[in-house]
Structure formats: C-alpha cells, structure tokens
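Example A, followed by Example B.
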Amino acid sequence: MRTVIRECNDMNCALCGRVNLPVAHRLPDGVLSYCAACGALFSNRAGDAGSITAYYNGAYQVDHDSLKDRMQRKAATILARLERATPGRRLLEVGSSYGEFLVEARKRDWEVTGVEIAQEAVAYARGHYQLDVRAGGLGTVTFGQKETFDAIVLLHVIEHLPDPLATLRMIHRLLAPNGVLYLATPNLASLEYRLLRSWWLWVDPRAHLCLYSPQAITSVLNRAGFRVSELFSQRGDSLGLLAGVLILPWRWYARTVRNPSDRRVTQSRDQGKKLIPRLTRPFDHYSRPIRRLADHWMLGPELVCMAMRSPWD
C-alpha cells in the first residue's frame, strides 16, 4: 500500500522497533507516522498512557444508544464464531465499555468478565447489568492466579492501546490452552483509507494510536505467540464510503474551526454520524457488489481476526 510520507520525526514503531518513522499525516490534534516494515500507522500520543486514561474519562464520548443497537445486531455472529472455535464458556472482553456485548454473551450461557478504563462505563455495567467488569487497563486489574479464559474479545480496542504487543502477550497468558482471541479493528489497507486518507473517520490521533493493515495485525499477533486462524475484512462499524465523504464538513469544522478535543466538536461530529447514515441508507443496496469485491480483496474498512493459543504454550 502506498502511503505519502514527509519528513522523519523521533517516533519509533511500537511493533517492530524501527526508529525515526516518517510522518504520514500532520493534524491539529496529533502527528501520525508510518512504518513501512509493518504496514502500520502510529500516533505521536501512543506513549502517554496517563493522558490516554484521562482522555477516556473526560473528552472521549460513546453514543450509548447507538452502541447498544450495534451490539445487539452483531453479537450473535461473533459469539457463533467463538462457539465453533472453542467448547469452553469463559469469556473476557477487553474494553467492555457499557457491557452490551457481555450481556448478549451471557444470554448464550457464557460466563463473562470485562475490563474497562472508563469509570462511567464500569459503573453502568456493574449497576445496570450486574456484570463483573473490572476498572482499569489489562495490566492493572487483578486476576486470580489460575484464572484463564476460553475466549478473549477486543472490539475496536487494539487501535486504542499504547503498547499493543505487551497487551497481546498478557492476553496470551490469560487464554486457556486452545483458547481463541477475536478482535476487530479499522483496516489501514481499506479502500476508504486509500481514498479519504487523513479525512477518514477512523484517523483520530487522540483516540486511535495505531491503525493496522492485514500484514501488521498478523505480524504483531505472531510476535505475541498467536497463530492466526482467520483474517478477513468487512464493513463492520464503518459508516461507508459515501457517508465518509458526506461527513467531511463536520471533520473540517472540527480540525480548522475549533479545538478537536472540545466537547462541542465531539457532539457535532456525533450528530453528523447519526444524520449521514440515514441519508445514505437508500444507496446501501446498490453498493453491495462493490463492498463484496472490497472484502474479497481485503479492502473492507474493518479487519476481523481470530487467533489461537497453541495447546503446548
């Protein structure tokens, strides 16, 4: 994949350690650098774990109603894949947010646990759904000495992690033998990114610290001790290419008129994300053949990966 590069900076690759990565995008809220060896895009905010935690407990907002609707639609498909891959029923979700996916898993007789750094989401999941959701990052929460899981799920989480390799190694240790990891993340090799570049909705240096190509996600999983069993692209949580183009005025407003971290900008963007899909929904039927071709060539906007822990590890 061709990525336009500019001057080098002092960014290093969090996956392979390559130093002085070239700048791919310089934006008002951060700089993104590209590692050609890995095929991954890194934010210059990736090493600041303290500010990341503060961000998720402050300016970062999730549209809870939209999240609930999405989870109810897609959880059955994800859980069916997991049930085919492992006979076990102990599930951990890293980045469990308000607990919507865990609720759907519990309905299918999974024994569920969550990990989440946003305090408001933790309180909601515990109070509203009576879920076992532990507050903090994966490296700071407490697990029992022999506590393991048959399935661990990361739904649009790995792109938020300041040290993805260290987190994946922790996940590897928490998986039972023959356990399965399921993750979904934006696809840096997607047609949407190739066309929209830095205006792609998932290019967000404050929140998305690393964006992965299929090559990059396979490489980091292999380095963490996993064997990738399935890798494909799909539309997933993307609004679609047409919506991505129509939402550009909101993106331009956020970057050029106001501070991108301003809550009013976040609210304005969320309003755009609700309005635009309604306008583009009638065209979804006609774009299906293009989406199928994109997925066939691994150009869909969302990467989905399933990886196994060897029984001998």
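Example B, a separate protein, is given below in the same form.
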Amino acid sequence: MAAGDHNLHSVGGRELMVAFKAFSLRTLVLTFAALCVAVTPAASAPVRVGIAALVVGDVRLSNASINKPKKIARRTRLAWGDTLQTKGNSKLQILLLDRSTLTIGSKAQLTIDRFVYDPGNSRTSTSTVTKGAFRFMSGRRTGNSTATVKSPVGTIGIRGTALDGIVGKEAVKIAKKEPFLDGVKSDKKTATLIVLRGPGANTRGGLTLGLADVSAAGKTVVLDQPTLTAYIPRPGAPPIGPFRLSTGGLTKLQEELSPRVTNANNGGLLEKIVPGVIAAGVGLLILTNSDDDNDTPANPTNDTPTNCDNPNNPTGVC
C-alpha cells in the first residue's frame, strides 16, 4: 500500500471514530431525554385530597391538565390545583381526607390550593373561593389543625368550627338589608360576607370550641359565637364586625347553599339531595348545641363593634 493511501486510510479511520462517538453521545442524550419524559407524569402525579361526595346539577372541574372544564359525577377524585365550578341550580360537597367538608352552592367557583394531612397529628388546608356561597365544616380532631379560605378581598382562618360565606353580588344583596351595614359601599364582584355557624363559646357535649379570623387590609375580626358575622365590602377595605346576621340574612345565605333542583323527568327533587339533607341534619345538631337557653344579646362583645363605613357613625373612630 502506498504511503499516501495509508495516510488517507488513517484519516478516514479517525473521522469514522469521531462520527461514531458523536452518534453514540447523541443517542445517549436522546435516550436520557426519553426516560425523563416517561418519568415526569409519575413524578408530577396529582396530590389527591378527597372526593366529590355530593354532586347536584352541572358541576365542572378544571386544572393545569384540563383547560376546558369538564362535568364531574359523584365520587370523582379531587386533587391540589383543581378548580370546581357550579352552574345555576347546582351544588357540590367535597369530602376531604380528614372528613372536613367544603360545600359550594349555585354559580360558585372554588380552587383547592393546598391540603396536607398527617392523621392524628396535624392538617392544613387552603382553598380560594372567587364567587358564590360556600360552607366549611371541620373534620377529625388533630393536635394542630388549620384551615384557610381565601376570597378576592380577604382571608378566613378557621379553627375547629363550621362557617358559611358568600362572595359577590349575592353578598351585597344580603349586606344591603342589614341595619349594621347601612351606608357601606360594596363591590358586587368581590364583596365577602362570613358568618360563624358553630360550635361557639357556649358549646357543650365534648365538642371542640371553634372560631374564625377574618382578615383584610391589616385588620382582623374574630368570630367566636354562632351567627357572628364579618363583612369585607371591597378591595382594600378592612372587615366590618363582628355583628349578628339577621334571620333574613341567614335564610338568604342558606338558600344560596341549598338550591332546589328539580328532576327534568318527573319534576321531583333529585334523589341526590337526600345525602345533603342528612349532612345538614348533623350540621344542625352541632350548630344548635348550646348550653344557654336565653336569647343572645345583640352585642356579643364588651366593646361595641364599629361600622367605619356608616355615615351615621357618631364617633368616626375605627
């Protein structure tokens, strides 16, 4: 073989080896990338927090993976990041792993932001309600339990209790009929009304005392007795209260939480409402278990609450 041919052969061999190494490296990278793609879904699997225990009417779910809200049925599993929406004459009750329940009424929207549960030790949950009526009822007792519900204008910290709330124009309608809120300027999209349902300070029978902290604009109002209420009228405004919600206000809020949904086939009430009625009975037992048979005074605290938005406020001090 001539020297020139030998050199040409050597150069060609080196080029072949370089090309082979480059091909091998590229194959390795692509293989690794494929493995990463295959592993990603498992690594980012949804964190399950509970189920849809009651579904009445049209209830839809969306999240990071489901862009177009889809209808759900009873027993649908729910996870962090899920957003639930109800249409008119619809209702959803969520049963969390610790037996806490979150209920939303018609034309409502709720997002499950976070839920951490260590049975027997602690639980933490955070949800956001952007519109409509909702109810939260605490579940199993644990040593360190906190629940938070956010609205567009404030935050509600919940400790071992049951409470109802409503966000948006229906909250404004209720507020307009409350004498304590006379003259308050409200935002129809974000106004938030919160009422403690129980158990409160007069509870007996071994039930854990509960309370709710309603916070906005650097101020916190504490609700520690059934029917005590706080109202956040608009973005940037502090909560007003505590005050006792009227019977008419309580009735209106209950109507928003429990719409009467008729069966399209026979015009009767949907059978699915029955479990909700049973749950409501249990809730009623908790809410009415008080050891004081006397009428509760109109002013539940030593210090008279002040409505800073009331133009008739003689003191002007808040």
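On Example B: The helical segments are 3-43, 169-176, 247-257, 273-287.
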